[in-house]
Amino acid sequence: MPSAQMPAYFHNPVRTVFAAGALEQLPDLLGSRRAALVIFPQARQLGLVDRIGALLGSKLATVIEDVQPNPDVAELAQTWQTFWQEHDQVETLIAVGGGSVIDTAKALMVGNDSLDFNDLVLGLAGQAPLKATRFKSLVAVPTTAGTGSEVTPWATLWDRNRQKKYSLHLPQTWPELAVIDPQLMVSLPASVTLQSGLDALSHALESIWNLNANPLSDTFATAAIQDVMDILPRLMDDLSDVTLRGQMALAALKAGMAFSNTKTALAHSISYEMTLRYGLPHGIACSFPLPYVMQRAVGHREDRDAVLAQALRVPASQGAAKLAEFIESLGVKTRFCDYGVPDSEVDRMVRDALTGARGRNFIGQ
């Protein structure tokens, strides 16, 4: 068992502004820079595009609002091409939305000398060197409480033609700023609130049963797990409660800080195939297997068992049952068969997941 006195290294360069009404600070935070706004399609009818346009005035160079859930490289290609050809002088991207919006903005913030998006895709696929030579800065403004992308350097991109998931991560893809305004989350529907909240729970747990865990990431993760399990059920009963929205946003931020240093592990590795093949939303795909993964995690390392027990407030051996009870109380099933995965496929899926980049972080190999 590692000693608490062993060196622990933690790095997160993202400056974070957390406050109800923080969106109003955008002009000051942006300074004299011109920006491109990346935002979800429904934002215009909600008045959010006009609101941000009024805030930024001439600093706003363009609006990119055709963002799709789980951004696919085929869909991104033309958007990327147009942005880099027509708005090369824009210095900063402002991403306002959930994980898909922030992931899209991270893809757009990376350019190359060839001005060819396919060159980046080949690099992400490992078929050629990733030649990223030009970069924009990023201000991430999450409208969901769960993704953590506002304080991490990773963007998940999908290639459905090849049935692949890519992770874009470079030193330059850390956001410069995270602006977290719980007021932006009040209008979130129940389904998105639930999915993003469970995504945050997964991030926190995944950072504990992780080979890269350390006492600093554990501190964020433990607090996030306890907060999510306390706050999310109450928020689902009262979606308009701004105080609960703020508490949930803070819990998701803690989870993001935890896995910003550890990356995720087996549950997320499983989730990628569940999204690609079975169409599950990410928050469900990464959270329904948590009890299963918990069972596999327990007993491998005494120090990890102790942190999981502290976070879940039960002995580690009872953690899987507590997680299943919690997740199912929110209306989410926790068995593979509930999602159409035959028993014959589960072992194969988990074996494949363990060999993936995120699966290899799992302690229960």
Report the strand count: 10
Estimated helix fraction:
40-55%
**What average pLDDT do the residues reach?**
96
Q: What is the molecular shape?
A: globular
- Terminal CA distance: 17 Å
Taking the sheet with the most strands, its summary is: 6 strands, parallel
Fold-level CATH name of the largest domain: Dehydroquinate synthase-like, alpha domain
Strand order of the largest sheet: 1-10-7-4-2-3
Unreliable spans are none
**CATH level-two architecture of the largest domain:** Up-down Bundle
Query: Helices and strands, in N-to-C order?
Result: EHEHEHEHEHEEEEEHHHHHHHHH
Percent range for β-strand residues: 5-15%
Structural class: alpha/beta
Number of helices: 14
Radius of gyration: 20 Å
Task: Give me the CATH superfamily of the largest domain.
Answer: Dehydroquinate synthase-like - alpha domain
CATH structural class of the largest domain = Mainly Alpha
- How many separate structural domains? 2
Task: Please specify the SSE layout and strand pairing.
Elements: E1 15-18, H1 26-30, E2 35-39, H2 48-56, E3 60-64, H3 73-86, E4 92-97, H4 99-108, E5 110-111, H5 117-124, E6 134-135, E7 137-142, E8 154-159, E9 164-169, E10 177-180, H6 190-208, H7 215-237, H8 242-262, H9 266-278, H10 282-285, H11 290-297, H12 302-312, H13 319-329, H14 343-355
Parallel strand pairs: 1-10, 2-3, 2-4, 4-7, 7-10
Antiparallel strand pairs: 5-6, 8-9
Helix pairs in contact: 6-7, 6-8, 7-8, 7-12, 9-14, 11-13
